[in-house]
Amino acid sequence: MLELAIIGGGPAGLSAGLYATRGGLKDVVMFERGMPGGQITSSSEMENYPGVAEVKSGFDFMMPWQEQCFRFGLKHEMAEVVRVKKIGNHFGILLSDGKEVESKSVIIATGGSPKKSGVKGEDVFWGKGVSSCATCDGFFYKNKEVAILGGGDTAIEEAIYLAKICSKVTIIHRRNEFRASPVTVERAKQESKIEFLTPYGIDEILGDSSGVTGLQLKNLENGSEKKLDIACLFVLIGYKVNNAVLMQEDGHSLCALSEYGEALVNLKMETNISGLFVAGDLRVDASKQVVCAAADGATAALGAIEYIEHHK
Ligand code: FAD
Ligand code: NAP
After folding, report:
1. Nearest bound ligand to CA 116?
2. What are the residue numbers of the active site?
3. Which among 58, 176, 187, 210 would be 20 to 30 A from 277, CA to CA?
4. Which CATH architecture has domain 2-113+239-310?
């Protein structure tokens, strides 16, 4: 039986692996369905990790993380986990090939992904002027005109954030009413750099070899068309957490979840199930940044070490 199973090999899972193995846990396996690294490996530029002054691609940035973990004994099994379940006082990890592995403790760090809009050009320019993260990429568009797609709290709050960096922020939303709280919408309306375009949809994201140059828009009420020159489109239309491994055969979650499907944890990354920890973007109130996910992973590993020590 494993002492610790880590599900997911992004920044949270890898940091958990480093701290758990270096902290003395034996038989620690990280189950990651692909190459370790997580979401950030799809980013072309990563420049906000404290202490790393050089701007690197997400892939290059994450490469040393796994090497460092493997040096301390972390094992990587390239496998998709279907479900984590409780068996008495330990856990069963069911893999997609039907194999089941048992472990005394588990850290789930399966992350999540921003929702995509499916608009023409989105995939072509993803990471080259189409972004899902204002905190990550806003600075690259300092003093430039940008647009946001979406009308929820994330879209409006990030518009207010971007207005402090960019020269103009246009919020494009498909309805005249906003899902975001009225107070937040009112705050955005007070910002001179923010403009609202409603009810508008994006027909196409325009660009060239240098990246995004503009948007072809349509008024959804009268069908009139409009072109908007911008350097970046932030698609902020919701986020999907990868909580499938928590779902049991009877449809219930192994641990308590928020109304958005995020795992409820305390400051030690403990769930309401003893021995089960959740770290990174999957947990409630996650800041959805690499540095935060890494810190969560380390915290969860320290908790797992303590748990194993007390359950010998
Ligand atoms: P993830 O990185 O999502 O990793 C989860 C891992 O779990 C994945 O590798 C996945 O394959 C694996 N997994 C999921 N389900 C299973 C399963 N059932 N079985 C096995 N494995 C599974 N943050 C910054 O700090 N700075 C930035 O500049 C920045 N830029 C970004 C740019 C982009 C395009 C994106 C998408 C995100 C960016 N972020 C950035 C956010 C950052 O990437 C995330 O906050 C961080 O990766 C979350 O780490 P995590 O370990 O919680 O989850
Ligand atoms: P959200 O509330 O689900 O809003 C998504 C927005 O994107 C909606 O306005 C939706 O339009 C639009 N949208 C969805 N799919 C689209 C598509 N394909 N094309 C164009 N537009 C599309 O998501 P969120 O803003 O990420 O927020 C998620 C949850 O977190 C919400 O409950 C929110 O209140 C909460 N949150 C809270 C805070 C806070 O309290 N400070 C901050 C951030 C988020 P429609 O409205 O027309 O459906």
Report:
1. 2
2. 133, 136-137
3. 58
4. 3-Layer(bba) Sandwich (3.50)
